[in-house]
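Collaboration report, partner site 2.

Our partner group contributed sequences for two proteins of shared interest, and the home lab folded both. The records are reproduced in the order in which they were received, starting with the first partner submission.
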Amino acid sequence: MNANANDLFRLHIIVTGRVQNVGFRAFVQEAATRLGLTGWVRNVGYNQVEAMAEGPRPALEKFAEAVKTGPRGSRVDEANEEWGTATGEFASFYVRSSR
């Protein structure tokens, strides 16, 4: 199967580290919006942030790098990525309630 540049993918990423009280979710939302992605981001417990994003693979790869870098004052110790096929269920990229 040859991937087309227009093919849409889904990236589920969970990062662990110093991600609370550093503007992490707003940073992730801004990166996704700038890259034209849809999906969501939320806190998961004290030291984890989870995001689900959909869009073209090149944009998602840039998004993953931004999430793993984080905003100033943050520290990402671990990042787990799961890739899949986009479902098209999101209209925008938003901050979800914490889990």
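Second partner submission, folded after the first:
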Amino acid sequence: MRKIVAGLFISLDNVFESPDQWHFPYFNDEMGEAVSSQMAASDAMMLGRVTYQEFASYWPTQTSDGEAGELADYMNDTPKYVVSTTLNATEWKNTTLIDGNKLGDEITTLRQQPGKDVSITGSGTLVRSLLRDGLLDELRLLVHPIVVGRGKRLFDEGDQIPLTLADSKTFSTGVLALTYHRA
């Protein structure tokens, strides 16, 4: 059975927004391996509307022989499931729109299909919703030793979602790789 797995860069103060502004000083081979292993374990992506629109405005114009390298092929060729209650259509190739109001049924269907994991990148609102509703199988956080001070936070004030630590590693940069399952 397939798993729904979310992987996020996050700061000590719970910020996941705009990691391109704060995470690169901590990126090294250890983190590259963690990110690559999540990509290798999946054969589909799930994205929220905002992340989808950001990615769809950039990745379709990238090629494997350009600056983005092989990642461009992965992003463009991998099947994508976009969860939204407001989008009516998608334009990026290999993209299927999922009505956010029917997410539970769609997750059940995706889990039963043959294949590898379905990976979620970014999409904090979607991740929060899946966690709250018990639909996320695994949450992988790369916790960076930095306080960002502002930005979208993964968890809202008042959220209470019990989790169980399944795995942890400390990278030489001080980043913690934490894997959680819902308790």
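Feedback sent to the partner group on the second submission included the following. Helices lie at 29-40, 49-58, 70-77, 103-112, 124-132. The first strand starts at residue 4 and ends at 11.
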